[in-house]
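User: quick one, sequence for these tokens?
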């Protein structure tokens, strides 16, 4: 069983990714903010243990927790929704989660990945809005198109939305979850889960790789090279996160990683 390092040790300087989208998360788990002009949308709240770092980062960028209207989740794991209950108490924000992952948030099934991190999940909550394939989330100048991409979890959801710097409008894609850890034989057997999640994942990647994406965002920093791109931003490259070719490559690489896991079963 994997033991999680202390999430509060994973501090990372916040940054304005491009236009009205920001990174305020930590090394263990990414948190993004969209400033819609009519309130903030947070995508993934992160661990409860590192919530104070997220709030600190928001203030450093001039973003205020009281303005969070929506908390949107990529999937139902503790590193992405562990802090949500506390944030809702603080802000009154409305919560969104893929329909199939609602039992994880509600504590009805032991699939929050907390045991694998040797952690307890006490922050259960009932999502206000359950997302399906094709759902839309609208606030201010932002419309998020939700695409179901099961595999990592049954309710994993990938988000597509426009971002603007006031002059240009670019398309961002935030990958819902590509880790093969929950599609490994040991994990699936432990919880009696179907191996069909692997086929679902491949189909999902083949589907979303065709989407137009100028800015690839991940829910973990290593997925989209956030650290390296942050360095490029500091060096003056305002378009460090802009790469229209990166999205398709990421989808193909995610499949290749899973195929290596499957090959290891035999």
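Assistant:
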């Amino acid at each position: 069983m994997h033991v999680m390092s202390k999430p509060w040790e994973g501090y990372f300087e916040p940054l304005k990714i491009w236009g009205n989208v920001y990174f305020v998360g930590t090394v263990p788990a990414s948190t993004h903010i969209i400033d819609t002009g009519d309130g903030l949308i947070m995508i993934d709240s992160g661990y409860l243990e590192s919530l104070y770092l997220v709030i600190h980062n928001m203030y450093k960028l001039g973003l205020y927790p009281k303005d969070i209207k929506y908390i949107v989740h990529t999937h139902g794991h503790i590193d992405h929704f562990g802090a949500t209950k506390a944030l809702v108490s603080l802000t009154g924000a409305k919560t969104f989660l893929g329909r199939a992952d609602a039992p994880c948030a509600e504590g009805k099934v032991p699939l929050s990945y907390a045991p694998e991190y040797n952690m307890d999940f006490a922050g259960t909550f009932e999502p206000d809005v359950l997302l399906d394939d094709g759902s839309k989330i609208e606030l201010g100048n932002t419309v998020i198109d939700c695409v179901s991409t099961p595999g990592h979890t049954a309710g994993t959801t990938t988000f597509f939305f426009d971002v603007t710097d006031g002059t240009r409008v670019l398309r961002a894609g935030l990958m819902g979850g590509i880790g093969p850890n929950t599609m490994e034989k040991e994990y699936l057997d432990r919880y009696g889960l179907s191996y069909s999640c692997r086929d679902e994942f491949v189909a999902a990647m083949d589907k979303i790789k065709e989407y137009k994406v100028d800015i690839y965002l991940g829910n973990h920093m290593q997925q989209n090279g956030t650290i390296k791109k942050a360095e490029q931003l500091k060096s003056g490259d305002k378009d460090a996160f802009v790469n229209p070719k990166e999205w398709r490559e990421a989808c193909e690489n995610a499949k290749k990683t899973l195929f290596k896991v499957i090959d290891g079963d035999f």
